[in-house]
Backbone:
């Protein structure tokens, strides 16, 4: 009898221990959040990717993202200004977006849901990508020789810093090729994302890594200057100069009037 009771107690203990994990995990839902990977800034009209990375282990990932800006001209994604992505088990979703043709912040608000067992989870957040108007640098490469020239490298140096290069695969004999380089590097200034260029006078140096190829001035390099940003208004100088002239005229006229006043003879008292 005692042996039978002891066996029953052991059986109850073993069953309880087996049920503890089931009881402890019943109703448990892991934390659910989404990390985004996106560029800080892109140039107008360019195409870029945004990656939404959710935790692994859920199912039926569904994402809806909304694009907003002051001017959405030129923007496009898989569904214009609303993006819909879904996957049964893939926790990483990627959206391809074409930036608007107008500079300014592009605000992206997204909602992602998923399932864990019989429960549903949801995450919502907002971030922005700054749309910048790039600067396009131009160079005309001339081949004056009688044979084609291949793989010509062109370097663009902005304010003594190389910012990019382009390779021309072929310049036919006795002909020229136009090269364009789009500069859209960004930086932070006064807590704003702006184009990484001096607001004012900038110096651009274009160098061709082949002495047989020249630029329009006959050399394989040239230096030019350009102004970025609003051109200063110097009209106030003309206004000040005009005021000075008027003042001098009035002063001269006043002096002339004093000279024309008849003086009192010394013999009169």
Residues:
């Amino acid at each position: 009898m005692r042996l039978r009771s002891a066996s029953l107690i052991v059986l109850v203990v073993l069953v309880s221990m087996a049920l503890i994990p089931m009881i402890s995990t019943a109703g448990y839902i892991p934390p659910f959040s989404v990390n985004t990977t996106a560029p800080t800034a892109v140039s107008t009209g360019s195409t870029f990717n945004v990656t939404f990375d959710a935790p692994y282990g859920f199912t039926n990932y569904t994402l809806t993202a909304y694009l907003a800006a002051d001017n959405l001209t030129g923007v496009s994604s898989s569904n214009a200004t609303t993006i819909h992505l879904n996957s049964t088990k893939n926790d990483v979703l990627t959206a391809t977006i074409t930036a608007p043709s107008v500079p300014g912040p592009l605000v992206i608000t997204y909602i992602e849901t998923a399932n864990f067992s019989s429960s549903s989870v949801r995450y919502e957040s907002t971030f922005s990508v700054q749309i910048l108007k790039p600067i396009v640098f131009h160079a005309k490469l001339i081949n004056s020789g009688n044979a084609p020239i291949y793989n010509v490298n062109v370097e663009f140096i902005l304010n003594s810093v190389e910012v990019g290069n382009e390779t021309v695969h072929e310049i036919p004999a006795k002909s020229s090729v136009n090269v364009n380089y789009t500069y859209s590097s960004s930086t932070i200034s006064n807590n704003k994302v702006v184009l990484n260029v001096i607001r004012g006078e900038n110096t651009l140096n274009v160098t061709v890594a082949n002495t047989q190829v020249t630029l329009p001035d006959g050399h394989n390099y040239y230096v030019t200057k350009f102004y970025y940003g609003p051109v200063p208004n110097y009209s106030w100088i003309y206004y000040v100069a005009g005021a000075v002239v008027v003042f001098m005229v009035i002063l001269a006229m006043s002096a002339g009037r004093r000279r024309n006043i008849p003086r009192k003879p010394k013999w009169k008292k």
User: Anything to note?
Assistant: Residues 235-260 form the longest helix (26 residues).
